[in-house]
Write a structure and sequence with these properties.
Elements: E1 5-9, H1 14-29, E2 38-43, H2 49-63, H3 69-78, E3 79-83, H4 89-96, E4 103-107, H5 114-123, E5 130-134, H6 142-155, E6 161-163, H7 171-182, E7 195-203, H8 212-215, H9 219-237, H10 246-259, E8 260-261, H11 268-271, E9 272-278, E10 280-282, E11 285-287, E12 305-312, E13 322-327, E14 334-341, E15 350-351, E16 359-363, E17 368-376, E18 383-392, H12 400-410, H13 419-437, E19 444-447
Parallel strand pairs: 1-2, 1-4, 2-3, 4-5, 5-6, 7-13, 9-19, 15-18
Antiparallel strand pairs: 7-14, 8-12, 9-12, 10-11, 12-13, 14-16, 16-17, 17-18
Helix pairs in contact: 1-2, 1-3, 1-12, 2-3, 5-6, 6-13, 9-10, 9-13, 10-13
The structure holds NADPH dihydro-nicotinamide-adenine-dinucleotide phosphate.
NADPH dihydro-nicotinamide-adenine-dinucleotide phosphate (NDP) binds near residues 11, 87, 109 and 113.
Length: about 450
């Protein structure tokens, strides 16, 4: 049943202004918002409704500049505001009103406030009939993720909990399942006999951008690999679900995650890389050494680049390396999943290229699919050349955030992360975190604007 009330806990924060209000505006523009949906903001700032609406207008102007005025006005008129602490049930009672059914509580809050907010939601009876959206990070390790799940399950049914990962709203990410399971061409090749390896890469040109408070205690492994890239691994490697509903989809993902074998402590040094950027430039943008960014504690040795090789211990994937890599302040935005097939160029032919052939690449932002093949070139008919079959996908009708928000408003958790999935993801990365905290392998460095670490350690 579609929600009639959206209560944003943490309504004055960065996430609300940058993503949530923009997603709501997008849904309003696409006529996806139910006419009777009320949107209530809660934060401690002692604002009234007028102040909150002014703030929302300013954020929409900044982050959704092309929004038609009438759509922005219509959204702002739905907004109201309740000032107070989310740990106080009286504040939440004022925000939700007497009937908490068909309402959605969106926790756009700092993670240390999740637990008191959940307790207060339970105290006002929101656990019956309301759904709850939780932003990342879901815990900081396996124990804290388990504790948060226990708290949620004490009050809410799992189906009412939406652990948000906006990667799952991305077009290319959803496309992986269609390509894999709807095209008989690929199915016989999707296994260890034919696939030499899979690279899941999320390289970014963005650097710290003033987010030391969060990032310096998190790092690339936990910020990106633990959640987002493991989700991509699931979609590339999982078995075909019986149906595309929340239960079957997430059962398949969890089954896959349970088969993922991370490195043992002895293997961490050879199967993972951690590194931190030093001063450099990306185009005409000069960047300081990460260790000198405001708010950074260099002694924490937080990595801005992480790479991990994982294996999937099942019949389909035994022995195939899955390389997960992410980094900040790199030369280019490279966001892709490359499935590299084994077949070398047949020795019957010559080959003139240096590019890999026989790989299928799913690229994100912009969304493209590329199939690298070897073809007979224009010259010697018996000498092959690399060729790219490329498809640029039509732009998605809704952004990833808007897509996930509409699913949450409609109460369908298929694209949200289930509690056991979140725990499995922590189980996989935890032994790596433990070794990294002991200094193994050593922290490498790479200049901002480069392609990544090449073996130099941090001075
Ligand atoms: P901010 O610190 O910018 O905002 C936090 C919001 O929570 C503010 O509105 C703050 O207002 C409110 N708040 C904090 N404590 C309380 C309290 N006790 N009672 C009522 N309101 C409270 O954080 P972000 O918006 O950046 O992040 C929110 C969540 O989203 C975090 O979990 C973060 O990890 C996650 N996230 C953020 C992303 C981003 O790009 N910003 C991206 C992905 C996830 P006040 O202090 O006035 O009460």
């Amino acid at each position: 049943m579609t929600a009639r009330r959206l209560v944003i806990l943490g309504a004055t924060g960065d996430l609300t202004g940058r993503y949530l209000l923009v997603a709501l505006a997008e849904l309003a523009a696409a006529r996806f918002l139910p006419d009777d949906l009320a949107v209530v903001g809660v934060a401690r700032d002692p604002w009234g409704e007028a102040n909150f609406r002014r703030h929302a207008r300013e954020r929409l102007a900044r982050h959704a500049p092309g929004l038609p005025v009438a759509v922005g006005d219509g959204l702002v008129e739905r907004l109201s505001y309740v000032a107070g602490d989310v740990a106080d049930p009286a504040v939440l009672a004022a925000a939700f009103g007497p009937d908490t059914s068909r309402s959605l509580a969106y926790l756009a809050l700092p993670p240390n406030v999740f637990a008191p907010a959940i307790e207060a939601l339970a105290a006002i009876g929101a656990a019956t009939g309301a759904t709850i959206v939780i932003e990342k990070p879901f815990g900081t390790d396996l124990a804290s993720a388990k504790a948060l799940n226990e708290l949620l399950h004490r009050h809410f049914a799992e189906e009412a909990v939406f652990r948000m990962d906006h990667f799952l709203g991305k077009q290319t990410v959803q496309n992986i399942l269609g390509v894999r399971f709807a095209n008989p061409l690929f199915q016989p090749a999707w296994n260890r006999e034919e696939v030499a390896g899979v690279d899941i890469v999320w390289d970014e040109t963005v650097a710290l951008e003033g987010r030391a408070g969060y990032y310096d205690r998190t790092g690339a492994l936990r910020d990106v690999i633990q959640n987002h890239l493991l989700q991509l691994l699931c979609l590339v490697a999982m078995e075909k679900p019986d149906a595309l509903n929340a239960k079957d989809l997430r059962d398949s993902k969890v089954e896959l995650l349970r088969s993922v074998r991370g490195p043992t402590p002895a293997e961490v040094a050879s199967q993972s890389t951690r590194a931190r950027y030093t001063a450099g430039a990306i185009g005409d943008r000069r960047l300081p050494d990460y260790a000198e960014e405001q708010g950074v504690d260099p002694a924490l040795e937080t990595e801005t680049f992480a790479e991990v090789t994982l294996f999937v211990d099942n019949d389909r994937w035994q022995g195939v390396p899955f390389r997960l890599r992410t980094g900040k302040a790199l030369a280019t935005n490279r966001r892709e999943i490359a499935v590299r097939f084994r077949t070398p160029v047949d020795p019957l032919f010559g080959y003139e290229g240096h590019r890999p052939v026989n790989q299928l690449v799913f690229q994100m932002s912009p969304d493209r699919m590329v199939l690298d093949l070897a073809l007979n070139g224009a010259g010697d008919p018996f000498c092959l050349e690399p060729a790219e079959l490329e498809l640029t996908l039509a732009p998605q009708d809704l952004s990833a955030y808007a897509r996930l928000l509409v699913e949450a408003l409609q109460g369908d958790p298929a694209l949200a992360i289930r509690g056991d999935e979140a725990e499995e993801c922590w189980r996989i990365v935890e032994p790596i975190v433990a070794e990294w905290e002991k200094g193994t392998p050593p922290l490498l460095s790479y200049p901002a604007g480069s392609a990544g670490p090449t073996g130099r350690t941090v001075a």
